[in-house]
């Protein structure tokens, strides 16, 4: 299971307005008990509230589903997962029976949020109960019916397909959905420290891809068509991303090494790299720098300065090629020592983004393979800078031969 945190649920439920009825008093007392970790007391209070609710007529939907949902959370904390599952289901049934009668938009949204959490936690309870099929259904309800941005339900659904059914296709699809939501910045309640989750997702994506024996994977193009791609290449790429997010993960290091040692794998195909970054062009820098705390571009310049200090050479470089330049994070660091700075990238979308974010940074840009640019400027190149792009080349030898000239 990728995410497991049952205890956060109640915090979101304290927001709604209290009309000071006796029932809401009971609910609030129950929430207080639950937050203090007094689960047994909370269970008693919520049960009392539910009895009271059944006697009264016209109890609000929010109060009803909050009682059932919080009772379920208290029960699950007590270790009674069977009763917890039942109570989450009752919350969901109450939602389906009554949501159409709620007219206030805000209340409607809030009820939907609680229902979404209920079905997500129901999925986790089913996992604990060793009912993987039901867990998958509950996770699917969470993102299909309540919240399409619920990344955690995609992630956990993927892990059940993966761990309990060895269904790599379905797992892959779900992991990718979770990853895309997190990187795209639209995820509901993203983790405060996303690197670990992103690494875990890519690691699992790599496992699913490398498990395919026929090595034929489909790659989705922008226009919706698909083309064939080598699964091992894609798996290697996934493991290298996992490593970037969590450089200490020796399992990912090992998987990457064993895949790239495979002599039949040359380098990630250009189409693959291009489509990857076309998709992420707009959010690329945001996710890399802001969300992930990436500082590799600064380190690269610092390392360069240190190396040059030893060599004793400080004069500007005549022609500098920024290979796989992306949005210009690295190029910017080298602008002040470059007379002419040329950016090369496979993705036209990301070059547009570079022009938008850092107008005038590059004297010239090329869309396409770096090898073609090395050939074009043969023997004139003073310096090649490459941020994170060399990881996309399985075999660096042809590249070195060209650039050294
Ligand atoms: C009420 O919930 C049901 C079940 O989730 C859904 O099909 C329906 O669209 C919802 N109605 C409104 C108005 O949200
Ligand atoms: C699902 O897989 C996980 C990880 O292998 C395992 O711990 C769990 O017991 C499995 N559950 C079922 C129901 O098989
Ligand atoms: C590497 O990451 C994977 C996925 O998050 C995890 O299962 C594994 O335990 C990690 N291995 C190490 C050695 O950190
Ligand atoms: C050149 O730019 C780098 C990166 O912005 C900066 O660290 C360095 O101090 C600059 N050098 C000069 C001489 O302006």
TrEMBL record:
<feature type="signal peptide">
    <location>
        <begin position="1"/>
        <end position="20"/>
    </location>
</feature>
<keyword id="KW-0732">Signal</keyword>
<dbReference type="InterPro" id="IPR051685">
    <property type="entry name" value="Ycf3/AcsC/BcsC/TPR_MFPF"/>
</dbReference>
<protein>
    <recommendedName>
        <fullName>Methyltransferase domain-containing protein</fullName>
    </recommendedName>
</protein>
<dbReference type="Pfam" id="PF13181">
    <property type="entry name" value="TPR_8"/>
</dbReference>
<dbReference type="InterPro" id="IPR011990">
    <property type="entry name" value="TPR-like_helical_dom_sf"/>
</dbReference>
<dbReference type="InterPro" id="IPR029063">
    <property type="entry name" value="SAM-dependent_MTases_sf"/>
</dbReference>
<dbReference type="InterPro" id="IPR019734">
    <property type="entry name" value="TPR_rpt"/>
</dbReference>
<keyword id="KW-0677">Repeat</keyword>
<keyword id="KW-0802">TPR repeat</keyword>
């Amino acid at each position: 299971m990728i995410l497991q945190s049952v205890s956060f649920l109640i915090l979101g439920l304290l927001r709604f307005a209290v009309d000071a009825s006796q029932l809401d008093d009971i609910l609030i007392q129950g929430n207080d008990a639950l937050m203090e970790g007094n689960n047994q007391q909370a269970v008693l209070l919520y049960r009392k509230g539910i009895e009271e609710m059944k006697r009264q007529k016209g109890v609000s939907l929010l109060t009803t589903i909050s009682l059932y949902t919080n009772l379920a959370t208290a029960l699950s904390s007590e270790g009674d997962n069977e009763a917890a599952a039942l109570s989450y289901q009752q919350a969901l049934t109450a939602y389906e029976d009554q949501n159409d009668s709620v007219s206030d938009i805000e209340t409607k949204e809030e009820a939907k949020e609680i229902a979404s959490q209920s079905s997500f936690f129901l999925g986790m309870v089913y996992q604990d109960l060793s009912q993987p099929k039901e867990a998958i259904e509950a996770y699917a309800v969470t993102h299909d019916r309540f919240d399409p941005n619920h990344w955690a339900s995609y992630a956990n659904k993927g892990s059940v397909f993966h761990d309990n059914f060895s269904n790599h296709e379905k797992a892959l699809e779900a992991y990718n959905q979770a990853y895309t939501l997190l990187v795209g910045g639209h995820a509901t309640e993203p983790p405060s420290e996303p690197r670990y989750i992103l690494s875990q997702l890519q690691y699992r994506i790599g496992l699913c891809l490398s498990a395919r024996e026929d090595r034929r994977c489909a790659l989705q193009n922008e226009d919706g068509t698909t083309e064939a791609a080598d699964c091992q290449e894609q798996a290697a790429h996934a493991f290298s991303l996992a490593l970037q997010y969590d450089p200490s993960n020796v399992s990912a290091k090992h998987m990457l090494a064993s895949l790239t040692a495979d002599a039949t794998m040359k380098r990630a195909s250009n189409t693959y790299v291009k489509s990857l970054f076309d998709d992420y062009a707009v959010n690329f820098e945001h996710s890399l720098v802001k969300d992930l705390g990436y500082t590799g571009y600064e380190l690269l310049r610092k390392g360069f300065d240190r190396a040059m200090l030893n060599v004793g050479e400080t004069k500007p470089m005549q022609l500098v090629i920024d290979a796989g330049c992306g949005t210009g994070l690295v190029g910017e660091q080298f602008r002040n020592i470059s007379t002419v700075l040329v950016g090369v990238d496979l993705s036209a979308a990301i070059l547009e983004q570079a022009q938008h974010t850092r107008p005038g940074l590059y004297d010239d840009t090329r869309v396409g393979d770096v090898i073609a640019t090395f050939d074009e400027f043969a023997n004139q190149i003073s310096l090649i800078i490459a941020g994170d792009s060399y990881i996309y080349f399985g075999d660096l030898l042809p590249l070195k031969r060209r650039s050294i000239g």
